[in-house]
Amino acid sequence: GCLARPLDETMKAKLGQLYLDWTDGTTNHYAEAEQVFKDLVGLDENSAWGHYYLGISYTMQGKFDDASNELATLTSLNKNLANRLQKEMEQQKESSGSQDDASPTITIQKAN
User: Fold this and answer.
1) Residues 40, 12: contact at Cβ < 8 Å?
2) How far apart are CA 73 and CA 3, in angstroms?
3) Are 74 and 82 spatial neighbours (Cβ–Cβ below 8 Å)?
4) Is the pTM of this model over 0.90?
5) In the chain, where do the E strands start and end?
6) Pairing mode of beta strands 23-24, 27-28
7) Residue 99 pLDDT class (50, 70, 90 cuts)
8) At what angle do helices 48-60 and 64-77 cross, to 10 degrees?
9) What integer pLDDT is reported at residue 110 of this predicted model?
10) What tens digit of pLDDT does each residue of 40-81 get?
11) What residues pair up with 81 in beta bridges, in sequence order?
12) Distance (Å, rounded) from C-alpha 10 to C-alpha 12?
């Protein structure tokens, strides 16, 4: 669907969410989600949900510097989403700091 309608922001957001939720046993698809959300933000730099989910995809991969950049952008767009991202980043940092093979513990809330 995203290939047929490359400018459809809603479709890109749904695809990115699918990648965040999808695991094949021990394989996740966070890198694919990251790319989809980068594309989404490329379509609309002011997409609060795009920056939020891009920050989530970075967080789930342990890319906290990149997630912090998204948090800074998100703070000016939507303070509520910025607060949610910040809490999720803190939870993931705590989780990965206390476990050697930490897996993400973020609960993803879907955009409507």
Assistant:
1) yes
2) 28
3) yes
4) no
5) 23-24, 27-28
6) antiparallel
7) very low
8) 160
9) 53
10) 999 999 999 999 999 999 999 999 999 999 999 999 999 999
11) none
12) 5
Pairwise CA distance, residues 56 & 13, whole Å: 13
Residue whose entry in the numeric block shows the structure tokens 């952008």: 73
Residue with tokens 């047929």: 4
Q: Per-residue confidence at 111, pLDDT binned at 50, 70, 90?
A: low
Residue 43 CA to residue 68 CA, distance in Å, equals 21
Amino acid of residue 60: M
CA distance 57 to 81: 14
* Tokens 């730099």, residue located: 45
The tokens describing 107, both together, are: 């609960």
Q: What is the DSSP letter of 8?
A: -
Find where tokens 């973020």 sit.
Answer: 106
- Beta-carbon contacts of residue 107 (< 8 Å; ≥ 6 apart): none
**Token pair for 100:** 């050697």
Contact 34/60 with Cβ under 8 angstroms? no
